[in-house]
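Dear colleagues,

As part of the handover before I leave the project, I'm documenting each prediction I ran so the next person doesn't have to rerun anything. This entry is a single chain, and its sequence is reproduced below.
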Amino acid sequence: PTDRPSQELRCNPYDLRLYADWSKEKPPPTEPEILSTPPATQYVELRVLRRLHDQLLVEALPAVALLGHFDRRLLEHVFAEKKSTEEIGRLFELLQQEEWINQRGVQDEAEGTNLILDVEPGIRTRLFVYYQQSTLLTEVQSRAADYLERLTTDGDPSKLDWSFFDSTITVLEADPDKNRVVRWWRKVDSLMFSTC
């Protein structure tokens, strides 16, 4: 039958584009760079880290990888003890300039409109794999989990953008207490039905 899937080797078009873009870089990656590291690591080091010209961005990447979606307030809570308000503001502006970050405005009761930054999903996955064993990721996870859990369960969940829930799921799935995400979801579920 002609409706069977092809047995030919196939590649993800998104990955192909990433590698094609990478090969066109100036300077292009060298053979030792290509062969010395796994593909996901290569991509992060050569396509993302090499292009960052501000240490503030480099330091924030584990948080960016974990969160996936964030506004300025979330960064303020995640980096409260590590960075000043001015540094967080500058970081938020620098992240808006990255080609792998999408921006969108959402309605916000407190501020009218809130700017949310979203990491391109393919890049987010690579960054998360790259930083998965990092102590920085562990530090960020703890602070982000506490804040996001409070944010999404203290009040009416219908007033929050979906991305806060998506980030909370990712952050809580990375928590050492593997049941924390289940307990959180049960709270959110009961809140959603209580507001109907």
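The chain has a mean pLDDT of 83. The beta strands are 69-70, 101-108, 112-119.

All the best with the project,
I.
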